[in-house]
Amino acid sequence: MAAWVKAAIVSDIGPGQKKAIDLDGLAVLLFNVNGQYYAIEDVCTHDGAPLGSGRFSNTWVACPRHGARFDVCTGKALTMPAVEPVDTYPVKVEGNDILVEVEL
Ligand code: FES
After folding, report:
1. N or C: which end of the chain has fewer CB within 10 A?
2. CA pair distance 94, 101, nearest whole angstrom
3. What CATH number does the domain located at 2-103 have?
4. CA of 71 to the centre of ligand 1 (A)
5. pLDDT tens digits for range 38-81
6. Where exactly are the structural domains of the chain?
7. 61 lines ligand 1 (CB under 6 A)
8. Which has the closest alpha carbon to 59: 81, 82, 88, 80?
């Protein structure tokens, strides 16, 4: 069942920043792209590396293991060696809370 879960507060993630979060065992990465928030699964589709320590610039994050880049807004794999997209999750802001919709 899908549910909105509080993942962070607005002041946790300024523009151009990201934050790795564990939502009931689901590894999620939250991004602030010019004031818009996006969430993807924190697992590279190439070989399972966490993306949380990878470089984040503009709208992409790079996998720290082999360098594949993913679009943080769409989840699309932008460069090899990854070809499959990462999962994305809806995000909304209520007051100071950032909520992510995930399957629990
Ligand atoms: S594990 Fe991410 S590019 Fe290989």
Report:
1. N
2. 13
3. 2.102.10.10
4. 14
5. 999 999 999 999 999 999 999 999 999 999 999 999 999 999 99
6. 2-103
7. no
8. 88
